[in-house]
Design goal:
By secondary structure, the chain is α+β, with helices and mostly antiparallel strands. Among the domains are: about 1-105, Helix Hairpins (Orthogonal Bundle); about 280-355, HSP40/DNAj peptide-binding domain (Sandwich); about 365-398, no CATH class. The chain contains ten helices and 15 strands. Strands 10-11-15-14 form a four-stranded mixed sheet. A hairpin with a 2-residue loop joins strand 4 and strand 5. Helix 2 (about 20-35) packs antiparallel against helix 3 and helix 3 (about 45-60) packs across helix 5. The longest helix has 21 residues, at about 375-395. The chain is elongated. One zinc ion binds near residues 170, 171 and 228. One zinc ion (ZN) binds near residues 188, 207, 209 and 210.
Length: about 400
């Protein structure tokens, strides 16, 4: 039975007194990390995903959490109360992956896309409609896509391959073989609820067999085994607009999980992750770029070629330019997905000549003789400040 089951708090990396909010956050982090779509074929990740989903299912429910805190895993093992059949979606022997995924994804909250952000939807609980026979909208799906810096600032087109649970075309999402009817659920006698637990802890729960409907399908659809959904590989064209950033979400309407019993499909959300570029950094719509400027150009002034995301540009550098000085080229930044174009900021990084020969050094030393203290105001300023500091120090030490 309940052999060496892991502690639910430990699984989520939490202490016993964790708040509901902490539990939600910890689960979200773990679920994203171990989600099967992110770890295809990785059995260990899938196992872990199920475990954390089970932990979340229990700890996010006040009643179940209380029972767990009091009795540990024994509160839910089949030993108590004689084969109570476990909780909710049929935990007991272990959580069903499909069920865990549904819990994770949740149901799309009707309107779709408005306000709240998908993660809010993810956690509005099970994703089951109140009436188990009513049409049910498919869950929203999330797909994480890594893109290059260039694609983010200039826009691009991508094809993504994704496994989607789509409405079964044979039973139209009802789960019933065509022509077959429904019969009373044996486990709850048609009540839709069962009483489990034993001794002084008794509780009523939705019947896990019929999920509260009170009746079950007589003959499950042979194509989808009664699930109403079929897992299909799909290729989806994605247009990435210019100016997107890490965390930007693209919504592909109707490409989420298929609906059941005539319900519409959910939406697919593509969450973008932009890879870093070697030189260019983003600051909203502006581009910041450190540009090496030859030592003599910084000293005497002149033009330098600087890269921008729109191509090379010429930048005039005045004589006596210091390292770290920032120049701006207007309109050479990113064009936002909605409006506006940013600038490019160039941070000067003075490059000192490398690999001088003996002869070259000699010539330069000769030329450098014309430089005196007055050519180096920063050095002078610092010398003065240091002298003042030492004078104070001496006075204090007396
Ligand atoms: Zn079917
Ligand atoms: Zn039932």
């Amino acid at each position: 039975m309940a052999t060496s089951k892991k502690d639910y708090y430990e699984l989520l990396g939490l202490a016993k007194g964790a708040s509901a909010d902490e539990i939600k956050k910890a689960y979200r982090k773990m679920a994203v990390k171990y989600h099967p779509d992110k770890n295809p074929g990785d059995k260990a990740a899938e196992e872990h995903f199920k475990e954390v989903s089970e932990a979340y299912e229990i700890l996010s429910d006040t009643t179940k959490r209380q029972q767990y805190d009091q009795f540990g895993h024994a509160a839910f093992s089949a030993g108590r109360g004689g084969g109570g059949g476990g909780f909710g979606g049929g935990f007991g022997g272990g959580i069903d992956l499909e069920e865990a995924l549904r819990t994770f994804m949740g149901a799309s909250g009707g309107g779709g896309g408005g306000g709240g952000g998908i993660f809010d939807n993810f956690f509005q609980g099970g994703g089951r409609s109140r009436n188990p026979n009513a049409p049910q909208q498919g869950a929203d799906l999330r797909f994480d896509l890594d893109i290059d810096f260039e694609e983010a600032v200039l826009g691009s087109k991508r094809e993504i391959r994704i496994n989607i649970n789509e409405t079964c075309d044979s039973c139209k999402g009802t789960g019933a073989e065509s022509g077959s009817g429904k019969k009373n659920c044996r486990d709850c006698g048609g009540a839709g609820q069962v009483v489990s637990g034993g001794g002084f802890v008794q509780y009523r729960q939705t019947c896990p067999t019929c999920r509260g409907a009170g009746e079950v399908i007589e003959k499950p659809c042979s194509k989808c085994q009664g699930k109403g959904l079929l897992r299909n590989k799909r290729t989806i064209d994605v247009k990435i607009p210019s100016g997107v950033e890490t965390g930007s979400r693209l919504r592909v309407s109707g490409r989420g999980e298929g609906g059941r019993r005539g319900g519409p499909a959910g939406d697919l959300y593509i969450v973008l992750h932009v890879r870093e570029h070697e030189f260019f950094k983003r600051n909203d719509l502006d581009i910041v770029c450190e540009v090496p400027v030859p030592f003599q150009t910084a000293m005497l002034g002149g033009g330098v070629q600087v890269p921008t995301i729109h191509g090379n540009a010429e930048l005039k550098i005045p004589a006596g330019t210091e390292s770290g000085k920032i120049f701006r080229i207007r309109g050479k930044g990113v064009t936002g997905p909605r409006y506006g174009t940013g600038d490019q900021h160039i941070v000067v990084q003075i490059e000192v000549p490398q690999g001088l020969s003996g002869k070259e050094k000699k010539k330069l030393q000769e030329a450098a003789k014309i430089l005196t203290d007055k050519h180096f105001p920063l050095t002078q300023k610092m010398r003065k400040a240091a002298a003042t500091f030492y004078a104070h120090k001496k006075a204090l030490e007396k």
